[in-house]
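Now for today's protein:

——
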Amino acid sequence: ATYRPEVLACDAGADAPRVLAEYERALKRVLALLVITDGRIDDAEVETVRRIFEAVCGESLSAADVVAEAREAAREPMTAARFLARIVGHLNDYGKEQVLRGAALVSHADGSLQEREANMVRRLGAVMHLDPARLDDLLYR
């Protein structure tokens, strides 16, 4: 029950560009939702999202791209956990960990880990059925 059944029938070669695009879109949205978790868009968080996205996806995002994604995410009444629950079946274990690693880094980007941000990352970990000890390792190291 880790992956959606259609993943087994996936032609990785033909579907690779679409799957990669979905993964990149999901990562960008989850990170943007974390930027707005504390109710403001912080420059350090925006820069962290830019660095994470480039490191994970190999593509650059401008600060304006991140802010636009955060504002778009703020207009939609969907938490990061709910958004992630919709797409988690399309992520492999590495992808899940990368999303959580990015979430933890964004949560720390403004210099302090707010309880609301830590709770958000924990909810994301629960959605992806990540071991709580591994989640704490990502969140507090």
